[in-house]
User: Fold these one by one.
Assistant:
Number 1:
Amino acid sequence: MAKLKLPVPPVPPQLKPLPKRPGKVYGPQTPIEHAGEAAATAVGWIDERTSLSGGARWMMFRKVPKGTNWFYTLGSATMFSFLSQAVTGVFLAMYYVPSSTRAYESIRTINNDVFLGEFVHGMHKWGSSMMVILIFLHMGRTFFFGAYKYPRELNWVIGVALLILTMTMSFTGYLLPFDQRSYWASIVGVNINGTGPLVGPYLSDFLRAGPNFGATTLSRFYAIHMLLVPGAIAALMGFHLFLVARLGTTAPPWVRAKSSEQLREEKVSS
Amino acid sequence: MNKQQKEQYLREYGQLKSQGKPFFPYAVAKDGAMAVLVMAIIITMSIVLGAELGPKADATTTTYTPRPEWYFFFLFELLRVIKPPALVPLATIGIPTICMILLFLLPFYDRNPERRPERRPIATTAGILTIAAMGFLTYLGASAGPPSEIDVPVPANVSAQGQMAVANFKAGQAVVAQSGCGGCHKFGENGNDGPGPELTEIGRRLPAAAIARTLVNPTAPMPSYQGLQKSNPKQFDEMVYFLSSLK
Amino acid sequence: MADRTPPKSKYTADRNIPGAFEGETVTRRRFMTGSAHTVGAVAAGAFALPALGFALGPVFEEKRQPWQAVGAETEFAGDTYVPRTITIDATVGDSGKSTVYLRKYNSAVDSEPRDDYNNYIAISTACMHLGCPVHFVTSAQRFICPCHGGVYDFVGKVTGGPPVRPLDRFYTRVEGGQVFVGPRFSVNSELKRFSPRDPGEPLDGVGQFLYPSRPTMRKLPNT
């Protein structure tokens, strides 16, 4: 008896299984191999919907000029110390109470009772000194290498704004532990603002939220230290970094490009 | 910079960049190493020095000596150095504001296209001088002691006279410190420079009798210590002994 | 810039826009651009103005200083100061207190005219340079500031260093044998009374106009 051959159902060509490729097959085959590619798949999924990989590639694989040395790590180190301040600050805020009657006790609790409390507090405290030192060193490098000149003038201006904001951070943060040192340093600091003619007296009233050191002075300093200035620093830092990537980092001023023989000849003939 | 100089710079920079290396991983590796170093320093400082907390804020104190954080010492010293009351707003607001404006506008008034520090003598010298001035003010601010304390080494001729003389000297030092002399006079690192003359070596200029006479009958605005001489002659004598041994 | 295209006429009639009439300049696009800006400004103002007012409110709010007893009349002499603690702001615990130096009016040193408010002289401990705590040194009869070198004489006038005016004072009055301390006021170098100012704000010459008194604190009327 001849074998009965059933008719093939009409399948649209898109759904027909692809014929096997000849030769060796690359890429994941078994489900386990597919699972191993999960990270790449997830990144691919996000990139398909955001097209961010172009920007990341532009940021990470741009060329830095030759001669770039250790002095060029000061800027990123400043940013890194800011990140460290942000993280330790968030954890300190979980225990800190911004009230003039309880602030000192809450810092004592952090230091004495909280697990690793004094360590995190110390990191925040010494990290602030570190950030101030690094931002000054970074500014010194920019100044002596002439890196603020064309086309990077705007980035210098943003950098000075970041320096002032960093000093504002250290001034407002200094009051928060509420010990003798911080209290009197803040009194003097507020009065320094008050010596500005005409607007000064109103500015000190604004900083203290009244004519004297009062109930809401500490929370004002806390809000400025915690939210206002860090937000401004993060935004300006992002713009600063964008401009660095856009314009490229400078080469040390004494490094000269080696131009090829051919180019030199063209110059002579023109 | 004119258009030609701008183009020349961009061309040169373009060549340098094309001969360079990609940011990742070459520069990132250096940045990462630096970040690890920074973190190591912060963690070491935190473990070794900790986060010391002073006594609780006390607004009623009359004996506390306020001092700022170290990176504001230069401003603190500037406020100490500028004495005339009419110039106070200059020290508090004026000079810092001018410095900030000068910093902001640096790329706009420094139009020199040259970038090598050794070929920009004015900018480089100004930068080094600014750093040196800030460093010097920071040092002075850090070493400024409160006017209510005096800490001078015991002179050789006093220690040569034996234990009694040294004890007398120390007692006199304490009396002078409590009597507010540091408000107007300088003793070594402590006290204020003016309106009175520096007393670090007063014993060389005046004999003990003359010092005692000045303390009782001073020229204005110095206060008379006749009250102390009457109520506590021992302390007055210690004071005179201390001052006359400052050589 | 010779290669710029000539600017378009602002009149719709000149630009052959359908429905244009003589003298009209506002096109549909112009109108929509204007509305977008207006709506944006209103929306931003709707949250920015209340927030600003909220932050600035305390600058215009007057804080009254209550009178408080500091001791019997017999506790204060005319030739030396006695420190007393007063409460400036009762809501903030210890940081709302302050120390004042008190003594009796002494016609040998005090030259200002006597009235109901200065039978006892109450001197603030805030240095008038930048507000550090001054200390009265009895043997020298001087107020000495530990910060930047300010020195004041027995009545609080500046004798050395950078302070810009004499030490601030407090109104005092006597009731039933008790001395009461009231609001603070500032004085110029002739010890004339002014509305309270912050440290570092001179009151001589044009100083009182350069550093105006603020709504948060005013001098007692008729004093």
Number 2:
Amino acid sequence: MNEILDKIKQKYNAEDVTVQRERLAFVTVAKDLAIDAVTWLRDYEGFSHFVMMSCVDWMEEGKFQLLYLLHNPDTKIDIGVKTYIDRENPVMESAHHLWKQIWTYQRELHEAFGIDFPGSPRVDENFVLEGWDDIPHMRREFNTKEYSEKTYFPRPGRKTYDPATYMQEKLYPNQPVTAKRKDNDK
Amino acid sequence: MINKFLGFEPDESKLPSKRAKIGAEIDLSSQKYQKIWLGPNHPGVTGNMAMELWVEGNTVVKAKTHVGYLHRGFEKLIERRLYVQGFPTSIRMCVAEPDTNEYLIATCTEQLSGYDKEVPEMAKWLRMLSLEMARLQGLLRGVPGQGGTFALGLGVQWGVYLRDLILDRFEELTGGRVYHMYIIPGGVRGLLPDGFKARLEDNLKEIDDFIVRIKKLMFHNAVFKKRAIGLGVITPEMVDKYGIVGTTARASGVKRDVRKDDPYLYYDQLDFDPPTDTDGDVYARTWVRWQELIQTVDLLRQIMAKMPEKGDIRANMPNVLHWRIPKGETYVRLESGRGEYGMYYVTDGSDKPRRVNLRGPSYTHGVALLEDMLVGADVADVHALMVSLQTCPPEIER
């Protein structure tokens, strides 16, 4: 594990190396070098199994974090190559030429976060939301509660309970409720 | 008009419009191809997904997978809820084997909060028991279901009966038949009820008989052999290229099994060897799954023999309503009945997860692979190919 991490650090100037488990590590590389690093891991280091591609929205920092998770079937090591892209202009180089399933991930990320992958096949096609005209639904600022209240009719008689206050009322019915209600369902 | 069930008048103008125009369309410009829709409501389709097929005569020339009919935004909903509130939401991401989701989300939270070393031994054995029972009930539906795609419905009826017996055991153990919420962060919810092992052993004996009968019914059947052999061949080179996992990869001679490659729980203490084949066609995939059925019954017997009689089932963890997990990220995987099933979990130090992303085998099998595999196939074999890849749409769209 250390050997491969040292190589990535040297070759791609990787930062923020985190060893999560004995055979799982995450590294961060620059946006321009990410696809290069993934290709190198596949072609020269035996990371032939592409596990998944994912995105995390760090809205407060104005960044999207992209993750390419690779697995080496011989050494059983997993390496997650992370890179950050600008949230205002989310464009990333396409990696669809590396594995056949990547265009599906890129199509999903385009729909869910609004990230563009120029050249990726069918990237503009809808994936799960046909005819969606709101902001990309997996972005942090998309308010699910507000959307459902706006889109669907209310059903009288339905109640929601905050788990902390509800549990306190059930367990200690004769005592005043001290648990602070949290708005969990933003 | 007042709806008598709702008791008020719903404003249907806010609902998505009903678009009725769906069905066969003939491309009149060339008069050579016909476009047909298979699904989303079709008895042969695995779940709510649709295939858009362009056919020339009986041969498929182009195929597109359409998902989204079951999208409920689980990943987004979990991000907006406390850790423990996200838990009952997560299990619905895969209906076929919901216990796998329980294990993944419980293990992710344990790893990131530093409680993974404190899960008691008894709880780990019980987790294995419920995961293998989940695999068994999935295979009882999946193996004869492959025969069902070739109109061999008898095995499906046997399988559904036996699956219900396993669901009875789940009900006894957890209170639920399909969704169990048995594996919770820190351990499991309860010990085995009295006499559980004997009743499960009775069910396993019935399944032993079924295994012999289904072999004669399917693998000695001339029609099944004629249609399944040579259909939908996956070569070993395709396995990494398309991200193929589990029994589908093993039927092509690529031995991948998370239980062996990256052992979790106490799988390293069990004696088993994942079955493989080399042909890579529908017949080989069904044959591998039939062998896996035998192996799962054997694993359940091994687990029952090796697990302790009593012990702690829960780690001493803080009140679930006050969890704040430090900033971190992890990926946890397990071997589900359909292959590698994993979860990428990111926390940011708050009381809710920052990101939860599921990696199901259907994501790669059901879209990129299926679309390519259907080209050149006979339209009558589309269901068989779909079922042979064990596609489960809820885990594609989450």
